[in-house]
């Protein structure tokens, strides 16, 4: 079974973040050239240092790309430049997010729109710019990182869950349109993954939150970011050759549909 990604170029948005770091690691270990796109260059430096410690020379396959997905015009230009520079982008992982938390009647309109731009509209802009190079090569893989919060419906998360619903819809529509070109498009819905994002959002009641998660999951342990990364890799190689248009939950058996 072909799981090697040698010769493939993968663009991972939010690559410097808690889950992105492990996606970049996994795809580089599989032989790919990985473009780690993020808005936060100091976080990216720290992530790259950890990757160098863990991967040695293999970490050279991970390159940082500075980009702000909140600026959709600049994102379009950046994607076109990257395609020109690398000849093609074979794999696109839409993983970046922001996660404003709070009641609906306190959410600002600008914050809502910013959440959509970063979490979902950027996925449309990037795919639009990159797909022509996938079509030329006769193959491509797109993975959109959604969330259990869309599957289950959570309060106090409306802008975020709105964006996650949008990328699940986009996944299905793109899969239909791009299947004839041998481009597969899938989503992954992580459950609750212990990352910096979780520590920030739930800092005020982390222990209670952890217990809540374990009560709801079928597996009575936390699901690690590496387990999201290995599912991304699976969806971008021959091991999953018959799968497109799906939203795969990696949540320890929390939400079943
Ligand atoms: N951690 C969880 O429990 C969990 C659960 C469900 C879904 N998810 C999803 O997994 C993905 C990764 O989450 P994470 O936990 O690693 O989050 P994270 O906050 O650790 O990482 C997100 C990354 O996106 C980057 N980013 C934010 N705004 C950006 C912008 N304007 N331009 C470019 N990059 C930007 C951040 O700098 C950060 O590195 C997200 O899509 C998130 O919704 C996470």
Walkthrough of the structure:
Helix 1 links the parallel strand 1 (9-13) and strand 2 (33-38). The protein has 9 helices and 7 strands; from the N terminus they run E-H-E-H-E-H-E-H-E-H-H-E-H-H-H-E. Helices cover 48% and strands 15% of the residues. By secondary structure, it is an alpha/beta fold. It has a single domain (9-250), classed as Rossmann fold, CATH 3.40.50.720. A 7-stranded parallel beta sheet has the order 3-2-1-4-5-6-7, with helices on both faces. The model has no long low-confidence stretch (mean pLDDT 96). The longest helix is centred in the middle third of the chain and has 29 residues, at 109-137. It has helices at residues 20-29, 41-55, 72-86, 109-137, 148-152, 158-178, 196-201, 206-216, 225-235; strands spanning 9-13, 33-38, 62-66, 91-94, 140-145, 183-190, 247-250. The radius of gyration is 17 Å and the shape is globular. The site of nicotinamide-adenine-dinucleotide has 30 residues, from helix 7.
Concise synopsis of the structure shown:
With 257 residues, the chain is α/β, with parallel strands linked by helices. The protein is 48% helix and 15% strand.
Coarse structural class:
alpha/beta
Q: Oligomeric form of this entry?
A: single chain
- How many structurally independent domains? 1
Helical percentage: 40-55%
Distance between the termini: 28 Å
Order of adjacent strands in the largest pleated sheet: 3-2-1-4-5-6-7
CATH architecture: 3-Layer(aba) Sandwich
Number of helices, where a helix is a run of at least 4 consecutive DSSP H or I residues: 9
Helix and strand pattern? EHEHEHEHEHHEHHHE
CATH class, anyone? Alpha Beta
What overall form do the CA principal axes indicate? globular
CATH topology: Rossmann fold
Largest sheet: 7 strands, parallel
What number is the mean pLDDT? 96
Write out the CATH superfamily name: NAD(P)-binding Rossmann-like Domain
The low-pLDDT segments are none
Strand content: 5-15%
């Amino acid at each position: 079974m072909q799981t090697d990604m040698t010769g493939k170029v993968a663009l991972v948005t939010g690559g410097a973040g808690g889950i992105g770091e492990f996606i970049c690691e996994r795809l580089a270990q599989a032989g790919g050239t990985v473009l780690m796109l993020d808005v936060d260059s100091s976080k990216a430096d720290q992530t790259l240092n950890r990757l160098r410690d863990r991967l040695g020379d293999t970490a050279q396959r991970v390159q940082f790309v500075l980009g702000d997905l909140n600026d959709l015009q600049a994102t379009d230009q950046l994607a076109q430049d990257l395609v020109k520079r690398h000849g093609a982008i074979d794999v696109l992982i839409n993983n970046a997010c922001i996660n404003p938390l709070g009641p609906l009647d306190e959410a600002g309109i600008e914050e809502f729109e910013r959440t959509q731009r970063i979490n979902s509209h950027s996925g449309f802009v990037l795919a639009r710019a990159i797909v022509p190079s996938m079509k030329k090569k006769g193959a491509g893989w797109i993975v959109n990182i959604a969330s259990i919060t869309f599957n289950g419906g959570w309060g106090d998360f409306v802008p975020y869950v709105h964006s996650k619903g949008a990328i699940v819809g986009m996944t299905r529509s793109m899969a239909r349109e791009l299947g004839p070109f041998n481009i597969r498009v899938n989503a992954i819905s992580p459950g609750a993954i212990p990352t910096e994002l979780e520590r920030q959002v739930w800092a005020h009641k982390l222990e209670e939150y952890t217990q809540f998660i374990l009560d709801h999951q079928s597996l009575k342990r936390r699901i690690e970011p590496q387990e999201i990364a290995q599912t991304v890799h699976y969806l971008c190689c021959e091991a999953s050759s018959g799968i497109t248009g799906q939203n795969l939950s990696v949540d320890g058996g929390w939400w079943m549909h």
